[in-house]
C-alpha cells in the first residue's frame, strides 16, 4: 500500500524520510536507481567474491555422509 512522504534538504542533498514500515535498519548501505520518474531504493548486495570468501571460511564438516538412493514409486498416467 503506498505511503506519502516529503522530500527535504539535508546539507547539499535532497532527502526523503522512510516510514518505519519501509525502513532498512541502521547502517544498511543501499543502492538507488532511477528510471524516468521512478526511483528504486534497495539494500546493496555483497559482491560474489565476498560471499564466496564467507562460504569458504565456514567450518568444514568432520565427515561427509553418504546419501542413499531414493526409490520413486511408479505413477501411471503422470
Automatic annotation (TrEMBL):
Pfam family name, one: MazE_antitoxin
Protein name (record): Antitoxin
Naturally occurring in which organism (per UniProt): Brevundimonas intermedia
Top-rank taxon: Bacteria
Domain SpoVT-AbrB: start-end pairs: 8-49
SMART domains: SpoVT_AbrB (SM00966)
Signal peptide: none
Encoding gene per record: vapB
Amino acid at each position: 500500500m503506498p505511503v506519502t512522504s516529503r522530500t527535504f534538504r539535508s546539507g547539499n542533498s535532497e532527502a526523503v524520510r522512510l516510514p518505519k514500515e519501509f525502513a532498512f535498519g541502521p547502517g544498511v548501505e543501499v543502492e538507488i536507481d532511477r528510471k524516468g520518474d521512478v526511483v528504486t531504493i534497495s539494500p546493496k548486495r555483497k559482491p560474489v567474491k565476498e560471499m564466496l570468501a564467507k562460504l569458504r571460511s565456514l567450518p568444514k564438516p568432520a565427515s561427509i555422509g553418504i546419501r542413499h538412493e531414493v526409490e520413486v514409486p511408479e505413477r501411471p498416467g503422470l
